[in-house]
Amino acid sequence: MTSILPGADRTASSTDQARPLLEVSGLSIDVQRSGSPLRLVSDVSFRIDAGRTLGIVGESGSGKSVTAMSLMRLLPSALRISTGTVSFDGQDLAHLSEPQLRRVRGNDIGVVFQDPQNSLNPAFTIGNQMVETIRAHTDLSRREARDKAIGLLDRVGIHRAASRVNDYPHQMSGGMAQRVMIAMAISLGPKLLIADEPTTALDVTVQAQILSLLRSLQDETGMSLLIISHDLSVIAETADEVVVMYGGQIVERGEVVEVLTAPTHPYTEALLAAQPESTVKGMPLATIDGIVPNADAMPAGCRFNPRCAYALDVCRETAPPLVEVVSRTTTSVRCVRHSALTLRGVGIAVDASSPILTVPKDPDAAVLLEAEGLSRVYALRGGRLGRKSSFHAVDDASFVLREGETLGVVGESGAGKSTVGRMVLGLAPTSNGTVRFNGIDIATQRGEDKRATRRDIQVVFQNPYASLDSTMTIGESVAEPLEVHHRGTKPERTARVAELLQQVGLDPSVAGRRPHELSGGQRQRVAIARGLALNPKLIVCDEPVSALDVSTQAQVINLLRDLQDRFGIAYLFVGHDLSVVYQVSDQIAVMYHGRIVEMGPADQIYHSPKHPYTIALLGAVLSIDPRQRRLSSATTTAPGEPSATGCAYANRCPQVMDLCRTVVPMPVVVPAPVDGGEPVTVRCHVFGAAVDS
Amino acid sequence: MTTFETIDPELGPTQVPTLAPPRPAWRNTWRRFRRQKIAMLAAIVIVVITLAGLLAPFLAPHGIDEMTSEFMATFSKQHWLGTDNTGFDLYSRLLFGIRTSLLASLVAVALALTGGVLLGLVSGYVGGWVDTVLMRCTDAIMALPGLLMAMAVVGILGHGVFNAMIGLSVAFMPGFARLVRGQVLAVKEESFVEAAKVIGARSPRIIRTHILPNIASPLIVQAFVSVGFALLAEGALAYIGLSVQPPDASLGSLLQQGFTFINNTPRLVLVPGIVIVLLSLSFNAVADGIRDALANKERVADVGAQA
Questions:
Q1: Looking at the domain assignment, is residue A193 inside a domain?
Q2: Which 3 state secondary structure label does DSSP give A377?
Q3: Are residues A293 and A392 in the same domain?
Q4: Looking at beta carbons, which residues of chain A come within 8 Å of B215?
Q5: How far is CA A208 from its chain centroid?
């Protein structure tokens, strides 16, 4: 088979794999400001060999994206490369002229950004945009370029590429748009593809497909990959070498297996431990104390020392250099104590002797929240011949939540999971069905009764910056629920605010601050304190940790669990990350396209999923152990669209039957297996048939 | 840097802590405003001219309708800016004119602001057919040029400075209503407004504590821009005799009275003209300065979040 990809012939010719394609040495980046410039990235050095994949991992503020963008000199105007060289294929990119640089961009280096929808111009069809790119760098005719574009779209797994080439970006899903971005980036056969958080904005199953696609393209063309991610599992699944960044510096660098299985820097160890997968369910998640430092307030000595569990006086005094680890072949580390420390890597069981945090749940607890046949229907106008059609954001959802329990609602974007939360909160009207709280239908409540129910159901939103009014101080925000419900006198309220802030692990003095003075994790703690103010019985947590860094995410999850144990609050925990939802939930409901497709005890769902979609969702969870990668580069075509009739999953389902395409499956209780466990509810004909026969 | 303490399950008796007083946000805005040279200069010009207008009864050497024995006198010790054809002291009349023009513009903008905020809040917050009706009404008013609208209103109500204020406020109100409506539509979708609904806050409270403070910045800027335009518009109305009636004076009526002698005594036109232009430009410059000072806050916050 001949390949349409221009670089495909390179694999054979470049047998010498150790040839460095990109070599960055001593790279520093400053932000210009009044007074002295501020150093965002200091002394970064790494190399990428031909055909290899380098992953840069770090939390927000680590300087990883700025570093990647500086390679192509795509920095915002206030940022400047102050020292260092970027040598690519014999040229120094840091000192090329603009016209020379333009030839390198696209031709030799392709880029894929985080948000595919924003990277495409909404005013042009994707075909036009691809043709422009191809013709800017080659002398192909318009028709030839177009044929090439169609071939590329087909290669990145887009069905019916010849007709989709005329689509506008808004007609594509996020995953499709990212495939288009990749097709554009590889259209000229670059030697290096830079992918900056390529899957962060995408759903879990789509993420797995995109990463598989990148892998198979690399196998085919022999290009090198530079993947930047905050997500350690993305790096573990894709990279050959890894660079761990913290505070604008490289803290550890080496072969991915070496670094992740036996880290030599305490930050790498802490980052690995903070992954939800690293913890046995019921145990507190490992956290990293404190927050990522700001560039203008870097701690003296080692930049990680205030958060490091192993810090000594020497760490606070002298800044450690990046040195090669004697006992390793590839690893370099920036830690003076590395030879004295034995650190835990991935795959080693956590200390089982630490006390189990979660109090066992009472199986006979009273039912707090009961939803029955809950639906949210939107009427869509402008169908064919002006006929009205409707869209079910949520379709016939029923669930029960007991006092002091957590029900996790998990699903991808558009699954309707947030809408369920909003209907429980009364923020979205219900089209059908009832929500009963303490046995009373909340839709029938009026006046004081309604306000009383409102008091008992509180919320923590996804984005803690948007959910706090920036014109109010933290104290005013936390006191607001008390004020609205006329609780106590002003001094009493002030005292309660201080108590609440302490309960969520904040110093009461933050009451006088404004939201922008706090970090994301601290703001989410404030939002939780506000939710607690009225002693609610239920808190709806709408993706409460998805805007946070891994280390802060673990802190917030631990806090939520701790508060549940102390105050017996029930949570409706909405999330897209199955491993996070599993950690906090007693029961899990899996949603796909508006319907709950599987529901049952968390362990049951996580360890023996029944519904094909749940199986796919679990299969798409990436591994943080580079020795046990789960991605295959085999399946790279885009999945089918949700089916309009019958089971919505029919077009993607490997076990699909004729019945699935026509008849909507009803919930079926699958009895517990003989070797223990509990029954689960599944909406799938595969199980419906088994029960009938 | 804040470090988190582990949460102590056995929380001791709650002591009433002394909370630090909230740091006023406007102080930072003022600091950023002060750094802008042109805006600061404009602000000083406004303050000086406004003071001169306010203190007109004390500063003016002659009364507003006090005829002197000199006609068309040029600059002198007795008459700093000379006299006009009736023998009025131009300097005195200029001070009183500033007073009238500023008062008319400020009152007109204040009325427009109040009305516009009310209309815009109702329109944006309530939505539905109320929004449609109110917005079509503002469309109708905006279909006419502002000055023409003001002239029409004065034509109906009759001449005089008070009616001119009302006419101007009618002309400016739709702009404010539109601005407020747009801002309200954006802010009411924010999570913090939903968060307030979840705790059971009623609409008046949500509007007062969450929506109004969050739409204040563009409103302040728009108000300053409008005062600049109102000064020009009032000048135009006075020029065609729809605003103040003689012997009272505004900057526009001084211009009109001097226009007859523009060939021989350009002084009578230049002096009030320069003051109008200076004031109007200054209000615009200050508005720009305020906008930058407020916008800067967000930019700094963004950089902080990235770094």
A1: no
A2: strand
A3: no
A4: none
A5: 12
Taking CA–CA distances from A533, the nearest residue in chain B reads: B199
The verdict on residue A555 lying in a domain is yes
For A29-78, give the DSSP string. Answer: EEE--SSS-EEEEEEEEEEEETT-EEEEE--TTSSHHHHHHHHTT---TT
Nearest CB among B9, B25, B200 relative to A485 is that of B200
**CA atoms of A244 and A58, how far apart (whole Å):** 6
DSSP E strand boundaries for A323-405 = 323-324, 332-333, 367-380, 389-402
In chain B, what residues touch A507 (CB-CB under 8 Å)?
Answer: 2, 5
What is the tens place of the pLDDT at every residue in A214-241?
888 898 899 999 999 988 889 999 999 9
- At A326 the pLDDT is 84
Give B-chain residues touching A473 at CB under 8 angstroms.
22
Q: What stretch of H or E contains A236?
A: helix A232-238
Judge if A653 and A546 occupy the same domain.
yes
Q: Mean of the per-residue pLDDT values for chain A? A: 85
CB pairs under 8 A between A and B: 142
B6 in a domain, yes or no? no
Q: Decide if pLDDT at A491 tops 70.
A: yes
- Please name the residue that has the structure tokens 């005195």: B92
Q: Which residues in chain A are contacts of B301 at CB distance < 8 A?
A: 516
Residue B19 pLDDT: 38
A233 touches A150 (CB < 8 A): no
Handedness of CA A468, A469, A475, A481 (dihedral sign): negative
Query: Which residue in B14, B209, B301 is closest to A495 by CB distance?
Result: B14
Shared domain for A535 and A588, answered yes or no, is yes
Give the count of domains, chain B.
1
User: Could you give the ipTM of this predicted complex?
Assistant: 0.77
Q: In sequence order, what are the beta bridge partners of A82?
A: none
Give the one of B2, B14, B21 whose C-beta lies nearest to A507's C-beta: B2
Interchain pair B210, A295: CB under 8 A: no
Contact (CB<8Å) A289/B4: yes
- pLDDT value at position A355? 46
Tell me the CATH number at B244.
1.10.3720.10
Task: Give a yes or no: residue B212 inside a domain.
Answer: yes
Calculate mean pLDDT across residues A599-614.
Answer: 90
Q: Tokens representing A197?
A: 């958080």
Quote the pLDDT of residue A8.
Answer: 52
What does the pLDDT read at residue A689? 55
Give me the percent of chain A exceeding a pLDDT of 70: 92
Residues A328, A433 within the same domain: no
**Phi-psi domain of A295 (left: phi exceeds 0; alpha: psi -120 through 50; beta: other):** alpha
For A683, the domain range is 367-692
Do the Cβ atoms of A361 and A586 come closer than 8 Å?
yes
**Domain-located, residue B233:** yes
Poorest-pLDDT segment among A98-107, A431-440, A539-548, B62-71: B62-71
pLDDT(B297) > 90: no
pLDDT for the residue numbered B137: 92
Prediction pTM value: 0.82
Mean pLDDT of B39-57: 92
pLDDT score recorded for residue B306: 34
Are A299 and A391 members of one domain? no
* Nearest in space to A379 (alpha carbons), one of A415, A428, A431, A427: A431
How far does the CA of residue B185 sit from the closest CA of chain A (Å)? Answer: 15
Given an 8 Å threshold on Cβ–Cβ distance, is A297 in contact with B1?
yes
Residues A382 and A275 in one domain: no
Q: What is the pLDDT of residue A228?
A: 93
Burial class (CB in 10 A: 0-12, 13-18, 19+), A597: buried
Contact list in B for residue A291 (CB cut-off 8 A) is: 1-2
Tell me how far apart the alpha carbons of residues A441 and A485 are, in angstroms, rounded to a whole number: 22
In angstroms, the CA A681 to CA A368 distance is 20
